Amino acid sequence: MAADLTIAAVIPLYNGRKFILDAIDSVLEQTRPPQDIIVVDDGSTDDGPTIVEQFVADGLVRLLRKENGGQSSARNLGVAHAETDLIALLDQDDLWYPDHLAELVKPFMKRKSGELGWVYSNLDEIDENGLMTSRAALSNAAKTHPKRDINACLRQDMFVLPSASLISRAASTSGCRATRTTTCSCACFVPATTMSGSTGRFRNGACFGTAPPGRHAWRAADPSMQGSWCGSFRMNRSVVCITSVT
């Protein structure tokens, strides 16, 4: 039954002590809580993992550890350990509004889950201190939204953030297969192997969908983040708060 769809929240972590507590709290405050919360420590050198361990001790979060390999590889490890119907991605310095999951799951509940591969929302932009800098950022971007297929994403900058996304695990179980990245790849999740012919759809014929307006907040990257977690202008310029799907 669509109403019984299960969700796992996957949060990659690297030297994110400054924001990780707020990120996890935003997941725990969801009106539709996820069935699983997975934080993947990508070789942090700060005490971010120690902060996460308090939630592990309370049985609220699973903490996975790996050598530093980049944000995409951390996401993929989390996805590989998830056993839910849907995967909700959240970057360590972003926040979800309380109804984020409740809103993004609605399109999946309106049709057979196998037909829909990816739902994403608009987003609000906040600065490093959590102050709002832009509402409904996708509406103001010089890009076409909503995306309807993968080909549309490949033709131009996607500007679809992981933290704004809810993805069917059945439609895209292989991730981008990255085990190490040298730049931030905030949209590198859907591999070429999930496309079918020229349709640009996910494997099994799954397609894109959109939820309400901004249901999430996007924050500027922490300047202390280095190496494989830096290098993308888009990732370094701000942070986002998701509100709803469009």
Structure summarized in a few sentences:
The protein is of the alpha/beta class and 246 residues long. The chain is built from 8 helices and 12 strands. The strands form 2 sheets. Strands 3-2-1-4-9-6-10 form a 7-stranded mixed sheet, with helices on both faces.
Overview of the structural elements:
By secondary structure, the protein is of the alpha/beta class. It has a single domain (2-243), classed as Alpha-Beta Complex (Spore Coat Polysaccharide Biosynthesis Protein SpsA, Chain A), CATH 3.90.550.10. 22% of the residues lie in helices and 22% in strands. It is built from eight helices and twelve strands. It has helices at 20-28, 48-57, 71-81, 100-104, 106-109, 137-140, 150-154, 233-237, and strands at 7-13, 36-42, 62-66, 86-89, 95-96, 116-120, 124-126, 132-134, 165-168, 207-210, 215-219, 239-243. The strands form two sheets. The chain has a seven-stranded mixed sheet, with helices on both faces. Helix 2 (48-57) links the parallel strand 2 (36-42) and strand 3. The longest helix is centred in the first third of the chain and has 11 residues, at 71-81. It is globular and about 40 Å long.
